[in-house]
Write a structure and sequence with these properties.
homodimer, 99 residues, alpha+beta, Arc Repressor Mutant, subunit A, 5 helices, DNA-binding
Chain lengths: 99, 99
DNA sequence: TGAATATCTGAACGATTGTTCATATGTTAG
DNA sequence: CTAACATATGAACAATCGTTCAGATATTCA
């Protein structure tokens, strides 16, 4: 039981890191864009009016937390939302701020 | 429709701010402690092994985003989780990292 | 192979953030 | 009212973070 609590306690640090990944406007805008459709890096940069480099840096973080995945498509690399978990978390967040 | 999109676009900044509130280990530990029971500020500080000041600063942030509420109880102020939304978001997050 | 295109990456800089320290505010009991 | 307790707050400092810039890596096609 005390053991179980410690496991949870350790997990909380990872949890904070996970939410930190959601907690940046650029990354949220990326995630929301991918909510609607898949994007190549350049298209994402254009769509969000940011440099390709900035987007790439943030995609790397999102990938580290398994919030997005990607696959090669010719010269481009197509990014997509990792799973419905991500969709649910974003949806819950939107519900909260819309209250 | 274009109008609707802009509304969403603006909301995304608030959404990032909301997740930022979850994205700190101290605040997550506070939220998780309150997941289990209500706490006065001092008890929370003791429970988490942190100064009262640090906890108070973070509680202020959590309150700003309506993640916690409080009520006076004699000399103390008892903090509690604002609603089930918060519980759900935390639960979803834990599920994600446990995958 | 070499040019063109697409993406990634490291260093650096400015901005933001969490904690500490000292102190202020608020509440209760004597 | 005053002492004691509980919480809140402002300033300051160190650490973390996101963007830019320059250049590296990877893939395609002629």
């Amino acid at each position: 039981m005390a053991e179980n609590r410690n496991v949870k306690e350790d997990e909380l640090y990872d949890l904070a890191e996970l939410f930190k990944a959601f907690g940046d406007s650029t990354r949220i805008r990326i995630l929301f864009a991918l909510f609607e459709k898949d994007y190549a890096v350049n298209d994402l940069a254009e769509h969000l009016n940011m440099t390709q480099s900035a987007i790439s840096h943030q995609l790397k973080i999102l990938k580290r937390f398994k919030l997005v995945g990607n696959s090669r498509e010719g010269k481009s690399r197509i990014y997509f939302l990792a799973d419905d978990h991500v969709r649910t978390i974003i949806s819950m967040g939107i519900e909260h701020i819309e209250e």
